[in-house]
Fold this sequence. Notes:
Elements: E1 8-18, H1 24-34, E2 38-43, E3 49-56, H2 57-70, E4 76-87, E5 96-98
Parallel strand pairs: 2-5
Antiparallel strand pairs: 1-3, 1-4, 2-3
Amino acid sequence: MAAGGGRLLSVDFEVFGRVQGVFFRKYTKQNAKKNGLVGWVMNTDKDTVLGQMQGPEDKIRIMKHWLSKTGSPHSTIDKCEFRNERTVFSQDYSKFSVKNEYY
């Protein structure tokens, strides 16, 4: 269990729309860090942004909303898909990072 936030979750995400070339990864990292989440984010060769986040359930919920509705200031989000949501007992990462290679 995560302190004060309910279950500890891991969730994969992919964001579709105008999300590359608009600092989406940078803002994702900032928001994840602000919410105490760990994981990673990267661009794909399909012009989407892909990532994984881990942390307390309540903070994951906040980040899901941000990824689906807010994004970076100049982004346009068409949709965000969340996959492989699962309870974890420890985090696989020590921080939230931006990966620079394409998937």
